[in-house]
Amino acid sequence: MTGPWRVELGTLEESLISVDLAPGGYPERLGFEVVSPADADLETRINEARTAYERLGQETAQRFDVGVKMSSLQRFGMVDDLWDMALRDARAAIGQGYGPTVERRSCCFIYALPGCHECTGCPRLREPSEPS
After folding, report:
1. CB under 8 Å to 20, separation ≥6 — which residues?
2. pTM score, two decimals?
3. C-beta of residue 16 within 8 angstroms of C-beta of residue 9
4. Which of 59, 106, 122, 132 is deepest in the core (most CB within 10 A)?
5. Beta strands 35-37 and 5-7, pairing class
6. pLDDT in tens, 104-118
């Protein structure tokens, strides 16, 4: 089948996708149980993909037990941040160029590692009065 196409993700309880891992533990191959033709319009496909992603992403963030206190802005901000970063990369991959750095809502905390500092787009670098 040639694209564009869409896949059904399923739910957290009943996934309709599978991932084969390479020996290094990174995803090597994806499997999809339900694949169907997608709308030809790119923006329509993006909106449908975002809706499907947010449904699972928000539920995953809600259930994720980090073992420490985490604010809702951090917890749910990461869902939006990951979508925005993936969309930026996807648009670049199809020749639409890279947009500006994603101004994230959540912090990845890499600055806490020895010798590291905040990433570009980190909310810790914004002035307190700047909206996210």
Report:
1. 27, 28, 29, 30, 31
2. 0.81
3. yes
4. 106
5. antiparallel
6. 999 988 899 999 999
